[in-house]
Predict the structure.
Amino acid sequence: MVILISKEGEKYEVPSKVAEMSKLVKQTLDDENDDDTTQEIPLPNVKAAVLAKVIEYCTHFTDLEAMTQIQTPLRSSRIEDIVQQWYADFVKVEQGLLFDLVTAANFMDIEPLLDLTCLAVSVMIKGKSAEEIRKIFNISNNFTPEEEAQVREENKWCQDA
């Protein structure tokens, strides 16, 4: 067993095979080389609510059903057409939590979870205008209308392709 500790100090006891989906955790366990004791691994960048969701994902992946590998180019813009229904439902969460899951998957180095969460973000922004995408990611527009028009004109060839 492994004890994962969230940013807030909450502890989650997790079977080693589930915890080792994270390359960060696996490498930490390999470095310690002590198989007999339960190890505590602090994850200072991962909030408790997010860590609970990460553990839910890893448990489902290892114990019940591994996620279908995401093929690119994407054959559909519907997540349900790309991965199993459980995984599609897993990422139907509030936008802030989805972004936190992307960050946690990246920090913990859990490639299938990172792929799934990035897929969900890509589906969320597909077909959106630049202004809509700025709102989603809370990005301010530093261009004046004239500068934006100039950039659009200079890069018109991108939209024609």
The radius of gyration is 19 Å. Residues 107 and 143 are 32 Å apart (CA to CA). The mean pLDDT is 90. The first strand starts at residue 2 and ends at 5.
